[in-house]
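[job 4471] stage=fold_predict status=RUNNING
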Amino acid sequence: MRGRWSLLSIVALVVICAGLAQTSQGHALLSDAGLYKAPASYTELAFTDSGALPDTLTSAKGAEGQARGQVPVSFSVHNVSGSPRAYQWSIAVTVGVKSQVKAAGTVGVPAQGKATVTKSVAAVCGKAPSLQVAVRLASPAESIGFWVSCPS
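[job 4471] inference complete, writing C-alpha cells
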C-alpha cells in the first residue's frame, strides 16, 4: 500500500509541474534554469515576384525633357511570431543622392501570416543613368531594393 501512495504522489507532482510549466511564470522558471527557450520570431520582407520587377523605366519625356513614369512595386511581409503585428512601411525612390518617399502606410499581419502590398510609385530620372527603388520597414528595420535604368 505504501508503494502505491508514493507512486500516486510522484504522478500528482509530475502533473502539477507540467501544469505550472505551461504558465508564463513556469516559462520564466524553466528559462532561468536553462530548460526553456522562447520560439524564434522574425520578419521576412520580400518582393512578391522579383522576376517581374522592371529593369528599365518605361516613360514619356516630361516638359523639362526628363524621363518620368510609374514603377510598380509589390512586396510581402511575413510575420513569423506568435502574435499579430502592424508594420509601418515606405517606398523610396533615390536618384543620385536625392531620396524621396513616394508611398507609405501600415499593414497588419497575423501571427504566422503574410500580407502583400502593391503600389505604383512615380519616378523621374533627371540626368541620372538609373534610379533605385527601396522598400523599408520601420521596425524591425529591414529594407530591400532594386535598380531601374533610365532611358537615354
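[job 4471] summary: The chain has a mean pLDDT of 86.
[job 4471] exit 0
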